[in-house]
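B., you asked whether I could sanity-check this one before it goes into the benchmark set. Here's the sequence:
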Amino acid sequence: MVLCVLFDLDGTILDCIEPLEKAFVESVERVGGQITAEGKQNVSNNLAKIKRNRSGLFNFFSIWQLSAYLGIPVHKRLPLIFVSINNMKKVARNCEVFGGSSEVLEELKRSGMRMAIVTTRGKKDTFALLKRHSLDAYFQAVVTRDDVRRSKPSPDPVLFALRQLEIQPHDAVMIGDMPTDIQAGKSAGTKTVGITEGLFQKELIESNPDFLIRSITEFPQILGRLNSS
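And here's what the prediction gave me:
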């Protein structure tokens, strides 16, 4: 029986990717660069490629790589790196909550469900965002990249959260929008749910979670099925 839900943060509860895309495009225009219409459509795919390779989004190499993908001239890449890293970090610190997320968390809380965040964000940003959106009271545990030696897809952060909650893996479900969320949950022995309205739909499906949903708002509808699976 599911007694605990472990949530990824970005792309699951927080809506960050589209704002990051816009921040990058605005940064290119600010330094006098140009992105074609096709290039703008491909920003999200290239962000996904970088994130999939776990090189991070906010460092010299990742922005240089993204600029190269999009054909930004070499002489504009250095100023773009400094402008875009600052802009994208600012966006990441001010992500909004997906519509309906708070209502789902409130419903789960009323039912007595124990909940935790398992994220690759740092501790400072994570707690600031949870507090800003008044979400901190919903979670009995919060595990960030600062709490474990190995982040997802390692099972370590999932197991760390479960130990804090004193919940066995078979009584928990890991929910997220990336294949690494599913891999971490499976390796830890939890049930898994994938959210398909993100950048990693194909890879997410291939990771074979127990259930697929479009957004967090559909999660309460499948709880009964998870309990019987």
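One thing to flag: The CA atoms of residues 27 and 84 lie 5 Å apart. Otherwise nothing jumped out at me.
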